[in-house]
Structure formats: C-alpha cells, structure tokens
C-alpha cells in the first residue's frame, strides 16, 4: 500500500496557480509551456503515497504533512503526531546548523536536507542566503570537494567517465528527469583555486545548480550537475583508498576531446538546443578551446571566463560613482592571466570600446596582465599561450608584481592567480601611494587562495581601498569605520544570466548579453550602498537582482534575434519574477 501511486488534484489550496504550476518555471514557458487553461485551472500531479512519499525528497514535507494529507496519503503512524509549519521546520533546522562549529558539518547537514526535503532545503537557502551561501558554496564547498571521498553518501548528479564512452546518450537517459534546462559540467581539473580534484569536483556543479534554483529561480528538477571523469593527475587522490573516481592519469588530446564531443552532441540530441550548458572549473588549456568550439553550435558559456568577467565589470561600472570618470580613464593591472584574468580583461575592453569610439585594440592597451613569469609584454609574444597574446603590450620586461604596480601605476588591481597572499603589504601600499582610492579585487577562491584578506586591504590602505573578494569576508572595522567588502563572485551573475537565457528560449550566448547582465547588476547598487563604500548590492536581495539580470539578458536575446520564446513578454522583469521557482510547500489532496 505504501507505494500506491495516486493521481492527485492540487488546485484549491494553491494560492497562485500561475507561480506554482508544475512547481516552477518549466510549465510556464518554452516548449513545455502549459496552455493558458492549465494556468488557471487546478492541475494534476502524481505523488507516491505513504513510506515512499516520505522518502521522495521532491515531495516530502516531513512533519508539515497536514492531518488530511496524512489520511489521504497513507502516512498515519509513519510520522509522530505533531504537525509543524514549514516556518517552524526552518527555525529548527537553522538552530541545528548554527550549532555546528565546523563549516563542513554545516555543509553535510545541508546536503542531507536536500536529499530528504528539497523544498525545505531551498526555503532555508533563500531565506538565509548570506548565512548559508558560504556553507553550500565557496569557501566550504572547496573543502567538501577535497574530502568528497570520505563524506560521500548518496551520489548527486551524473558521472560520465571514460568507461561510459560510446554510451553517453544512454547515461543521460538514466537520469530521472527529462525536462532539463541547465547543465553545469566540470571535468574537475581546476576546482576553484584548489587545482585538480578529479571526480570529486562534483561538489561544484551541485553547488552551482543549488544557486541556480535559490538565487535564480530555475526549478530544481530542471537542473543537471555533471562531472566528466577522464582521470586525475592528483597523486594524493590516486593514492587515496576512498577516492571515488577513475584511478588513472588524465586522458588528454583526442581521447579527451572525443569524450567531450560525445557528451555535447548527446546533450543536444536528448534535450534539444535550448538546454544551457555552463562549463565550470576546467583547466585553462581546455576551457578556452571548449568554449570556442561549442559557442557557435550550443547554448554554452564558461562561468570562470565569462561569468566572473561579468560580475567584475558590474563592480567596476558601479565603482565609477565613487571614483568618477569613465572606465576608459582607468588603468587595470591583473595578477593571473588565465580564464578569469583574460576573460575580465576582454570584457572591460569590450565595454570601453562599446561606450566610446575607441577600437578594442586600443582599449586593450589600458589593461595589463602579470602571470607567473612577470608582466606580459610584447617581447614574450612568441612563447605566450594564445589567450594571453592580445595582452602583450610594449614595455620593458618586469618580473614582479610590485615592479609592475610601480611602473604601470594602475588604479585597479585584480587578483585572479589562484594563489593566496600574493597581494603583499608592499603591493597594497604601492597601490595606496598611487591612488587616493585604490580599487582592489582579490578574486581567487576559496578564502585560503584570496590574494589578500579584507583586513589586510583596509589596514594597509588606511581604510581608503574599495575592496572586493571572490569568497566572502566579514565586515571590518577600522578607525571607527565599518567597511563592508563586496563579494565579486560569479554567483551574482550566472543564476540570473542563465535564467534569462532559459525564459527567453535563447539558443546562443552573445557577449552583449554579458554586458547587459553587468549593467543590470550595477544598476542595483543604490546611493545607500555607495554611502557605505559598496559596489555590489547585498546578496539578501539576490532574487530581485537576478530577475533584473534575467530580464536584461532576455531583452538582449530578443533584440539579437536569438530568443525563440513567442510572443516577447511586454514586461520582462515581471515575467522573470512570475517564472521563478518558489520553495513553499504545496498541498496534496
Ligand atoms: O565557485 C566560485 O566561487 C567562483 C568560481 O567560479 C571559481 O572560483 O572558480
Ligand atoms: Mg568556477
């Protein structure tokens, strides 16, 4: 009896059928758009009953099942007598999570909640976003990936290894959900700034997609985390008896690209061309090539190249209110010339050239990059990787960051090196000597890899810095003033960007959409925020921010003729908001 499947009507008790049809956005637009009739009439959903219902994370409500539901769904006796509201459940869980001192324990508690009761998991995450983001995302997710083998209980996401070569389409069909809208895929080779974590990188797509739902409003069942396992060069993992991945060195070259090609075409074949694929934490040597290869045939973007670029550009646009002038008046210096560094640099150049008559080649000359060998200059051009070549300007060779700061005199210093503590006291003091208000971004993740801490940035500049970091830092008090560091993390951008692509039925990502996303984010910074020295709006408002980003991105998709959703909604912000997943429980009749 416990596993009886019942057809249930869920109408009367649903306050706003429009926002809850199908539990999320999927039924409100695109191929799966429900008919207008369906939007206003009660809808039907199949929910297992009894014991099976309690173990189905998509429908389980635990103690929140009402007396009536307990009767109609064979739950009598399977639950203790008390009936709780979702709010009370949330209160209890937040108390539990706060009682854990070790961040990883909080992470495990959150993952267990996701496996048990998905709606409650998202309610917690949405209502407590500033507190829980560092738990399910950077920095704790980094540690979770490092220890994934030991904390691993139930698999999340889809693992596609070399063993599945030739069978990837079948593997995709093993996934229980059919209507996938967003895939985040990694091959685990460069997880945050932590390096090659092989198959254990799965924590990243899982975490990113949790943010797609909580911050962006994409329905959880439309999200698919994927890890491609071609081996790992991390000897520690290969020697670890608990390692969960393929125990071999990484496949490269043709073997690697053939597997990726099979994956990309299987995705398109199985889900159509409107499924969004977000590349995440690939190593430089594959990231640029994969993006170049697939951006003209698939709906793809690389979060580390383009998402990070868009969030940084937003912060820079916003900072002009504090610094004055235009982007073209500034000089930018990067430490790190990989995906994030060159991606940000290119988007800044694109914005400068689109806002002025300056050709992009000229705009690039305002931007300088330092890599592990020193300042990138034209005399190094022959030996440079292709993605660094546009940044090789005329200058004498310089080997240290400090020398580069002194010679280039940047107003903006951005760290994307993946190496912690590289913005030394000398470097930060040099920035403060050149600029009344230096702008410094220490973007590498997690916190251990940040180029400097918030405390260091504020004290070494005597409180004059405008500071942001990739992983969160607490507000810092200096000389009686409270400084609030910004979190220049792509988490501000990818949920809204992706949501905008999905709700417009976009078929390709265009650079102008990234600029549109940056402008939408920058527009959310108000005078009240500027007065506190902030260049990013608080994350507490992230769903509203995401709706604006999504609307701007969708508008651009329509303008560029890349959107397939018809007709174009008149008010895209309202439309985006109406499509967002909400985690409140539904009533089962
Ligand atoms: O995941 C994050 O926090 C930001 C990011 O993409 C990275 O560092 O690779
Ligand atoms: Mg990343």
Question: Would you kindly provide a written description of the structure presented here, covering whatever features stand out?
Answer:
The chain has 589 residues and is an alpha/beta fold. Helix content is 43%, strand content 11%. It has 26 helices and 16 strands. The strands form four sheets. Strands 10-9-8-11-12-13-16 form a seven-stranded mixed beta sheet, sandwiched between helices. Helix 7 packs across helix 12. It is globular. The protein binds oxaloacetate ion and magnesium ion. Oxaloacetate ion binds next to helix 16.
Q: How many strand elements?
A: 16
- The outline comes out as globular
Small-molecule binders: oxaloacetate ion, magnesium ion
**Alpha carbon gap, first and last residue:** 17 Å
| Sequence stretches where pLDDT stays below 50 over 5 or more residues | 1-44
User: Numbering strands along the chain, what is their spatial order in the largest sheet?
Assistant: 10-9-8-11-12-13-16
The largest sheet is: 7 strands, mixed
Strand portion: 5-15%
Mean pLDDT: 92
What is the helix tally?
A: 26
Radius of gyration: 24 Å
Helical content class: 40-55%
Counting helices, strands and paired strands, the structural category is alpha/beta
Brief write-up:
This protein has 589 residues and is α/β, with parallel strands linked by helices. It contains 26 helices and 16 strands. Strand 9 (367-371) and strand 10 (374-375) form a beta hairpin.
Provide key terms for this protein.
binds oxaloacetate ion; binds magnesium ion; alpha/beta; globular
């Amino acid at each position: 009896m416990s596993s009886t499947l019942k057809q249930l009507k869920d109408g009367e008790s649903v306050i706003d059928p429009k926002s809850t049809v199908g539990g999320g956005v999927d039924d409100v637009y695109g191929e799966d758009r429900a008919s207008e009739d369906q939007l206003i009439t009660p809808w039907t959903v199949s929910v297992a009953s009894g014991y099976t219902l309690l173990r189905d994370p998509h429908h389980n409500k635990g103690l929140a099942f009402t007396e009536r539901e307990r009767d109609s769904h064979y739950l009598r006796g399977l639950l203790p007598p008390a009936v709780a509201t979702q709010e009370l459940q949330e209160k209890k869980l937040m108390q539990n999570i706060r009682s854990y001192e070790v961040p990883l324990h909080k992470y495990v508690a959150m993952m267990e909640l996701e496996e048990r009761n998905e709606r409650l998991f998202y309610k917690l995450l949405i209502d407590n976003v500033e507190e829980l983001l560092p738990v399910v995302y950077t920095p704790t997710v980094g540690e979770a990936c490092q220890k994934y083998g030991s904390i691993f209980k139930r698999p999340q996401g889809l693992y596609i290894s070399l063993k599945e070569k030739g069978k990837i389409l079948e593997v995709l069909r093993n996934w229980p959900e059919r209507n996938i809208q967003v895939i985040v895929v990694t091959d685990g080779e460069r997880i945050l700034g932590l390096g090659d974590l092989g198959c254990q990188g799965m924590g990243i797509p899982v975490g990113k997609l949790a943010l797609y739902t909580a911050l962006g409003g994409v329905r959880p069942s439309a999200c698919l985390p994927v890890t491609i396992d071609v081996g790992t060069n991390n000897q520690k993992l290969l020697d670890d008896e608990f390692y969960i991945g393929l125990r071999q060195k990484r496949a490269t070259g043709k073997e690697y690209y053939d597997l990726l090609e099979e994956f990309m075409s299987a995705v398109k074949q199985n889900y159509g061309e409107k499924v969004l694929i977000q590349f995440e934490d690939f190593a430089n040597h594959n990231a640029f090539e994969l993006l170049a290869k697939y951006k003209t045939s698939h709906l793809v973007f690389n979060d580390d190249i383009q998402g990070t670029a868009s969030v940084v550009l937003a912060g820079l646009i916003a900072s002009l209110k504090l610094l004055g002038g235009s982007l073209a008046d500034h000089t930018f210096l990067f430490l790190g010339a990989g995906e994030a560094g060159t991606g940000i640099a290119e988007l800044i150049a694109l914005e400068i050239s689109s806002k002025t008559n300056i050709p992009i080649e000229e705009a690039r000359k305002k931007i300088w990059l330092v890599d592990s060998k020193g300042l990138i200059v034209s005399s190094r051009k022959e030996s440079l990787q292709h993605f660094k070549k546009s940044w090789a300007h005329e200058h004498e060779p310089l080997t240290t960051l400090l020398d580069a700061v002194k010679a280039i005199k940047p107003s903006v210093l951005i760290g994307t090196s993946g190496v912690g503590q590289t913005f030394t006291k000398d470097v930060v003091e040099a920035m403060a000597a050149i600029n009344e208000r230096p702008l410094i971004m220490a973007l590498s993740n997690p916190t251990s890899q940040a180029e400097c801490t918030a405390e260091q940035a504020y004290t070494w500049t005597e409180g004059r810095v405008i500071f942001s970091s990739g992983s969160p830092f607490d507000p810092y008090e200096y000389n009686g003033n409270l400084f609030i560091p910004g979190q220049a993390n792509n988490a501000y951008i990818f949920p809204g960007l992706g949501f905008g692509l999905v709700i417009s039925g976009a078929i390709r990502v265009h650079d102008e959409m990234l600029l549109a996303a940056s402008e939408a984010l920058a527009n959310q910074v108000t005078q009240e925020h500027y007065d506190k020295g902030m260049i990013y709006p608080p994350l507490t408002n992230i769903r509203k921010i995401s709706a604006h980003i999504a609307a701007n991105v969708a508008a651009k998709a329509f303008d560029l003729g890349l959107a397939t959703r018809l007709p174009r909604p008149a008010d895209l912000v309202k439309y985006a908001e109406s499509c967002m997943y909400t985690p409140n429980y539904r009533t089962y009749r």
